[in-house]
Amino acid sequence: MKDSFGREISYMRISVTDRCNLRCRYCMPEEGVENLGHDRILSFEDIARIVKASAALGITKYRLTGGEPLVRKGIVNLVEILAKIEGVEELAMTTNGTMLADKAEDLKRAGLQRVNISVDSLLYHKYEEITRGGDLDAVFEGVNAALKAGLTPLKLNVVVMEGFNDDEILNFVQLTLNHPIDVRFIELMPVGQAAKNNGYRYLSSEEIKKKLPALIPLDRQEGVAELYRYPEARGSIGFISPMSKLFCESCDKIRLTADGKLKPCLHTDEEIGLVDILKTNDDELLKETIRKSILRKGEKHCLNDGAKPVDREMNQIGG
Predict the structure, then answer these.
(1) H/E element, 309
(2) Do residues 119 and 182 lie in contact, with contact meaning Cβ atoms separated by under 8 Å?
(3) Any idea where the domains of the chain sit in the sequence?
(4) Structurally, what CATH architecture does the domain formed by 11-317 represent?
(5) In angstroms, rounded to a whole number, what is the distance separating the alpha carbons of residues 139 and 202?
């Protein structure tokens, strides 16, 4: 369906848990956050009802996120449930990849189509630093398992931070030359920990492009990503620029948090609760509430204009 500004809203990102097995420094505090517990997060039945109502409104693309979605017990069963819902045309997942090796085949068989793997460094000491102890070998195993299982096109999400991993840009680009891997460079956004003075500094997409003079622009755009490639490369390079190049006019998504709130925009604290409506067992009311939430989606976020950064940590939103 269209929102009040004429944008076709066809994409929902679903946080299935606020928990994560990593503690990425720009995502959550070192001590973690208070886990909601099973009684305060949406059940698989609740998620399925929300997806059915959303699909009836014309939302066709769904992405499972977290926290880390693979820590949610029974995640393969949820994928199987959602993949069978009428109107669900695309079902994907964003994961840190560290638990993917053992689940990739099962996820594919259940109906998951592709994965994005978040990895901000290809160097062991830097990856351990940014994740506070993550195992980079486990990520590489997850990448290989995803490719073998056919969870493709496989994308690597890289948040580029000046003075931390901007010297690795070419390392990531080289992955696209010989492997069917797409790399997405993402600007650091002031959400949760990233809005605090944590030493990680934003770098614009234009500054990244200056380091890659041989880029060839592609005559297509994928969602909000500007696409490029290197000559003869097997994969592509994309730039997602929420800060330097406002793409709100083409935004097609809404978000569902693990505790049952719809966020029309990642960059605001506005949320619409669905839990009480789910308790009524009134699916028409649920569908109408989702429709009204889409109509409340703002024209643009205002972070560039000095608006207050978002309070929730990224793991609680499912960015």
Answers:
(1) none
(2) no
(3) 11-317
(4) Alpha-Beta Barrel (3.20)
(5) 24
